[in-house]
Amino acid sequence: MSERIHLISLGCPTNRVDSEVMMGQLRDGPFEFVDSPEDAESIIVNTCSFLQSTTEESIDTILDMAKYKNVGCCQKLIVTGCMVQRYGQGLEGELPEVDFFLGTGEYHRISEVIAKKNPDIRSFIDTPMYIHDEFAPRVLSWRIHSAYLKISEGCNHRCTFCIIPTLRGTQRSRTIASLVAEAERLANQGVVELNLVSQDSTSYGRDLKDGSQLGTLLRSLARIDGIRWIRLHYAYPIGIPNSLLEVIAEEEKVCSYIDLPLQHASGPMLKHMRRGVTRLGQERILERIRTTIPNVTVRTTFIVGFPHETQDDFDILKDFVQAQQFDRVGIFTYSQEDGTEAAKMDGQVPHLIRMHRQEELMNVQAQISADRLARHRGEIVEVLVDGSSKEHELVKVGRTSLQAPDVDGVVFLDKAPEELQAGTFAHVKITQTTAHDMVGEVVST
After folding, report:
1. What is the pLDDT of residues 308-331, one digit of tens each?
2. Residue 17's domain spans which residues?
3. Which of 152, 305, 386, 388 has the most CB atoms around its CB within 10 Å?
């Protein structure tokens, strides 16, 4: 008889990929997945711990799931992922409800651990070295037509605000052959859109020392039958070669989209953050991107309220955002995270000032986004249908190639045919726009 499993995945897309690989491994064993934790004999929580807020969400989720040991069928509660890697064996005393803990480099051991009858060893944590390959089974848990493809794991940069090297280890890239093989398998399952993720996509392949680079990978993926869109995420702004930009411009399947986390624009702030680039350097990179890739969509992220950030620093950032007219911007308030160099810095900015600066910059960007989306009114664009809207079941939604899933907004499809299924491409005339979304009429499918 199969053991019933319920899995919860928290945090970023790379964590979701880890969860899907765990599901794939368990699917091939004597296990079955159930939608309700109340029906599960084993519950797995794959945690996030990038920020204090995500750590708190992980702990709350774990405690919620622990209740099913009393009111459900749960016999084992297993916690995996970044929170385990960050806090180590100390969690055993803090969370006695949990039977087993697996770090970020141990998720491939899930079948072994879940089969244990006696928790003689509760924690499986080591320096993260593992990254799955094309032979690892994987169960898509998100959309049947869109998937994340993890091209590398870990990061060699040492930004002072970031805990990722501690959580995920140093960079280790997958081979192009491995990624092509997995992408071909995904295409055979009906995936038409690949979103390439890592912690530092720009550095992809450098650790392999075999000549592998991101541009070559993109060209190889673009040759796969069935794949229509390939989108690049998390490109570190240093070391982007012109050859990569040329590939994005030339390959029809590669979306004219680049996710380029910049984090700030003030020289002192960039230095304190140890970003390795100046505002002038960032401006040159953006100029190269926009010159090489016609009509490119640029997404970026910024942190406000970093230690020592003065009003002048913030004004420089605001001026930079207004001058650059980014298509998409994520704005985060600085979070003082234990284990980072920035947490020990003096000059911590008060919480209320951080929040005020975030709101002010978001208002600036909202107007920019609204103006840029308004340019699409009247255009006929290709849209990938994602399904029914979460807010309005009778309304279908989709995205253009310049809208990444979950972070960029959607196209609401007015008067869409009932038979329009998720994974379908449609030509849509844009009739309305807001600061983040668009509305359009389906012209043809």
Report:
1. 999 999 999 999 999 999 999 999
2. 3-124
3. 152
